[in-house]
Amino acid sequence: MTDTPARIPGERAALIWGVLATILVVVASIGVFLVAPGDADQGIVQRIFYFHVAIAIVSLVAFAVACVAGILFLRTRRERWDDVGEAAIRIGLLFSVLVVITGSIWAKASWGTWWVWSDPRLVTYLIVVLIYAAYFVLRSSAEDDRRMRYSAIYSIAGFASVPLSFYSVRVAESFVHPVVFTRGGANMPGSMLVWFVVSQAAILALFIALLEVELVGRRSERALRQLVLRLENP
Amino acid sequence: MSGGAQYVVAAYAVIWFLVLAYVVVLAARSARIGRRLEAITRLLDRQEQRADPPDAPGDAP
Prior knowledge:
The structure holds two protein chains of two kinds.
Chain A: H1 11-35, H2 48-76, H3 79-111, H4 120-141, H5 144-158, H6 161-171, E1 181-182, E2 185-186, H7 190-232
Antiparallel strand pairs in A: 1-2
Helix pairs in contact in A: 1-7, 2-3, 2-5, 2-7, 3-4, 3-5, 3-7, 4-5, 4-6
Chain B: H1 5-51
């Protein structure tokens, strides 16, 4: 009989991060809904904040990871970095869509409207989402080495939109989107901050787990393609 | 539901539904790779058997 195929690198890491993410998400959910104090101003609606902001921060981290992977790809030309870049943007985009939807729900509950076009944070974040959605259009328009090269350059150039979104709310004079984290620290009591930190850790662990699973999938597909090629051309 | 609880439920439902859908897509891809790997393993087994056929009865000296 044929030997059992060797383990794909990263499988164990994906499993460990998956378990850690699950534990942290459960702990964070318990903390957010049962332990964290209610907000005097917004009431229960404020509980959207914990995961909404945590996911927003991790989405920007994902785009930063893709930018670094793009630089490393252009320096080394190793396919591995193209895999990391594409997977990071795919997950970052999923998280960005979650941020837009949950933000919109929160806006409806707090401001009475689903979207405010005059708010710089909302509009610049939407631009970031559209820029990264276009990454996949670009990727599907080229093949092999050109695709990887173009994707790397785009992920580096696209990252310029991230600080634009991050600082827009700080430089704009009129806006409705609140700024919780300032240079002076977090504008919330410690009993809320602790559950925000746990939520942030949970979403970061979830991102790493999904990234590991994506990378294992890509490595497996590549190994499978090479095996098929060897079988067809012995 | 009152006091905006329905918005909180909607927001968290969207988060977990989309994350779960993404995990299901990843799991489906993993299952597809597993099936293809199984098919290749079976093919290799058949090739091995053809290259090295078992001894027929009465062949022994």
